# Entry
Amino acid sequence: MGKGGEKGGGSGEPEAQLRFYTWEEIQKHNLRTDKWLVIERKVYNVTKWANRHPGGQRVISHWAGEDATDAFQAFHINPTLVQKFLKPLLIGELAAGEPSQDRDKNSQLVEDFRTLRKTVEDMDLFRANPLFFSLYLGHIIVMEVLAWLMVSYFGNGWITTLILSCILTTCQAQAGWLQHDFGHLSVFKKSSWNHIVHKFVIGHLKGASANWWNHRHFQHHAKPNIFKKDPDVNMLHIFVLGDTQPVEYGKKKLKYLPYNHQHEYFFLIFPPLLIPVYFQIQIISTMIKRRFWADLAWAISYYIRYFITYIPFYGVLGSLFLLTFVRFLESHWFVWVTQMNHIPMEIDSEKHRDWLSSQMAATCNIEQSFFNDWFTGHLNFQIEHHLFPTMPRHNFWKVKPLVKSLCAKYGVQYEEKPLGKAFVDIVGSLKKSGDLWLDAYLHK
# Structure
């Protein structure tokens, strides 16, 4: 999965001496210091090479001991090219009597999903529309210019500043959805072009780090809603999620916070603080600790541009306050949109499901409308996005009927709901988990 490495991660054998392995043997190699995985029945030792994986070592490590074929296909826009770099890591193949899927996965479902992917490729649904993304970037830049023109013409009064804050918040939110497109390699045919523009959008337009986002977000896509693998469900003991974690905390008498009230303090902690506090600290510390100097330079360019633009009108402290207020507003927008598809869904430990089943268990869709598409950056098609993360978002509606048909064939739930209900379900899910914790804490 990436840019090559030593033969067998430093311990592989020459191709002429390739061995044949059983799943029982492969599944033993799922440790921090010993990682094997399977792609299209070929066994790769990625132990030493994982640290050089462009998407981060954790995302590839999450698949150690498993069949990673569908994940490999999902994350790479040119798997044939990447296969050449996998060659030095090849140590063997599955034995002839071994099934292609591990852990008794439904082989027919897996094959049907791969057939669906081939159909989608034949329909050319992985081809981006340059006009769509050009207009999308254009409308963000137009709003940035409008904000500057407004404060230049009307001054820095309270009403002007409030309107200005809303415009800048919209710019930040929409730039967030756009960087998401480039981060998933869904705009250009070449990965390098996507990476370059991704750094510009997330760095210069938002002041954040492309590498930080990649390493965090790809883990979420690889193992969504899986404890210890999806960083998005690592709530640092502030919240308990799903049905099993609350009971475990309750039985162990863990009470970092009164979780039976988490659906109430959610409003005070999660939406207001995620971006302006937690993400900002994490982004800056990550860029410095991991020496992401290019990302840091792009982020600095954002802050230079911002302060040059607004210090003449608000001064240094006023500009800092305005920026913090915009981050505060954006954080609410971001949290409600990104959590509505996941928190109400199944959140649990690793169950080693097939790609389709694991993504469907962790995601749901929001009803389509022009506003919902724009407001959520097409994340209202969360199911299709998770199944095909490199697909340009303007094509999600085209593949949706095919996905629904496949799910119906195998009895896999395809959940879709109105936007308002999705927001309400976040709070309802937190309340349910909190009640489970309280019951276990008091009675088990």
Summary: The radius of gyration is 23 Å. The mean pLDDT is 94. The CA atoms of residues 120 and 399 lie 7 Å apart.
